[in-house]
Amino acid sequence: MGLTVIIPAYNEAEFVGDTIRSLLAQTVPPDQIILVDDGSTDGTGDVGRRAGVTVIRPPRNTGSKAGAQTFALPWVRTRLVMAIDADTTLEPTAVERLMQPFAQPGVGAACGFVLPRRIKTLWERGRFIEYLFAFTFYKQVQDYYRRPLISSGCFSMYRTDLMLLHGGWPGRTLAEDMDLTWTFHQNGVGVRFVPEAVCYPIEPYNFRFMRKQLRRWSHGFVQNVALHWRGVLTVPYLRSAVAVALWDAIVASLAFLIVLPVLIIVLRSPWLLLAYFIDAPAILVPLVIGAIPRREFGRTLASLPSFFVLRLVNGFFFLEAVWSEWLLRRVSLTYEKGH
Amino acid sequence: MSPGLPGTGIGGLFYILCALWMPVCELWRRRQGGEPGQWPLVARQFGIAVGSVAAMTGVFWALDAVLVIEKVAAHAASGEHAMWSLRLSALMVTSGVLSTVLSAMQVARLCLRLRMVRHSA
């Protein structure tokens, strides 16, 4: 099974060297690595050339990660193609493990377990908890029912013929990974999650970058619901997972950001503050199960409070996306890089 | 990315129910000759679901106890009533909302199918 790796990169000279080294150190190294230097001005392409990978540069910036990845697709000659963010490193066995589901007929995409590489700031800690929780519990349940909600864009593998058939990575929403995953589900293409294939991206370390990422993800989710709702209704399990996610994104956000503060003020009851973290023990259960084999128990406990801050901020951006995309009908397709 | 807010609302209950259903589903799949070797995953996710339910039950027990003490101190309603209202109402409201959302989605699916049948006729 041949494999080509595509690394879309815009001004990633600081991190892309680590990504390439991590790819070259795989137990099953890829046949070809293509670095798409998407109009960088910081010497990203030079880092790639020095590392000995194929560097291609579009005539002008493609405007999105999807655009950069699709630009590289005609260069792919192998059966499998993998997309990895330019700031992401891998466990040495990650590629080998991610290839395994493709031995099954019908599988067209596979994604791995994501954990932040750096866990220092409040935002990185919040994201660490969010990922550890979601990838230990939600995503494994989704995979058991053969419907992972997203084949994460930072580290996913695909059958090349299917990517060519679908015209590459779609750029019609801000979440090309979700768009592609839902399209595959609707077309009967299998998508798998491989928890043993672990990747480590650099996550937003300050609010400025986090704001850009959350805005992109929230708008992307809302756009994909609007784009795919008819098709999603025909896919068992996926339709339930999307309906529940949408409900929580809107109603839980409204409850946290509007209803609860009003109730706390009107009823003058400090007990209501408990509602913001009443589910902490239930969240801790999958976290502990995910953290112990990784020997991250202490870090997990220390990072838990940051998760509740990130959840509130996340809620704000979901509401902003719903307000902007569905009520004001302002479709945002400007791709803002935020790691 | 995980859309929705992990741990909050009906999402938590949905995935707990899905995980609790996995052993039944696995038995069915094995009888149909499905992919072997899934039991460790099923056991782990089932354990997470049971642990989460136990954790939330513990939280509500603790809250009930605190509220009972508060209410008794204030000579207000009986502790028995407070315990019923917290534990059961939380479960009933969340289950009710989850059932409503999933039912609404099924209704939408049926409406869409009817519309497609009418268009093709």
Please report the number of helical segments of chain B.
Answer: 3
Largest contact between chains: A-B, 54 and 43 residues
* Low-confidence residue ranges of chain A: none
Mean pLDDT of chain A: 95
Helix content of chain A: 40-55%
Task: Tell me roughly what share of residues is in helical segments of chain B.
Answer: over 70%
What Rg of chain A, in angstroms, do the CA atoms define?
20 Å
Structure characterization notes:
- The complex is a heterodimer of chains A (339) and B (121).
- By secondary structure, chain A is an alpha/beta fold.
- Chain A has two domains: 205 residues, Spore Coat Polysaccharide Biosynthesis Protein SpsA, Chain A; 97 residues, no CATH class.
- Chain A is built from eleven helices and eight strands.
- In chain A, β2, α2 and β3 form a beta-alpha-beta unit.
- In chain B, α1 packs across α3 and α2 packs across α3.
- Chain B has one domain.
- With 121 residues, chain B is mainly alpha-helical.
- The mean pLDDT of chain B is 83.
- Helices cover 83% and strands 0% of the residues of chain B.
- The chains are: A alpha/beta (339), B mainly alpha (121).
- At the A-B interface, α5, α8, α9, α10 and α11 of A face α1, α2 and α3 of B.
In summary, what is this structure?
Chain A has 339 residues and is of the alpha/beta class.
Question: Descriptors for this entry?
Answer:
heterodimer, A: 339 residues, alpha/beta, Spore Coat Polysaccharide Biosynthesis Protein SpsA, Chain A, 2 domains, 8-stranded mixed sheet, 11 helices, 8 strands, globular, B: 121 residues, mainly alpha, 3 helices, 83% helix
Give the arrangement of secondary structure elements.
The complex is a heterodimer of chains A (339) and B (121).
Chain A: E1 3-9, H1 16-24, E2 32-37, H2 44-51, E3 54-56, H3 65-72, E4 80-84, E5 88-90, H4 94-99, E6 107-114, H5 122-144, E7 155-159, H6 160-165, H7 176-186, E8 190-201, H8 207-232, H9 238-267, H10 280-291, H11 297-327
Parallel strand pairs in A: 1-2, 1-4, 2-3, 6-8
Antiparallel strand pairs in A: 4-7, 5-8, 6-7
Helix pairs in contact in A: 1-2, 5-10, 5-11, 7-8, 8-9, 8-11, 9-11, 10-11
Chain B: H1 9-31, H2 39-73, H3 79-120
Helix pairs in contact in B: 1-2, 1-3, 2-3
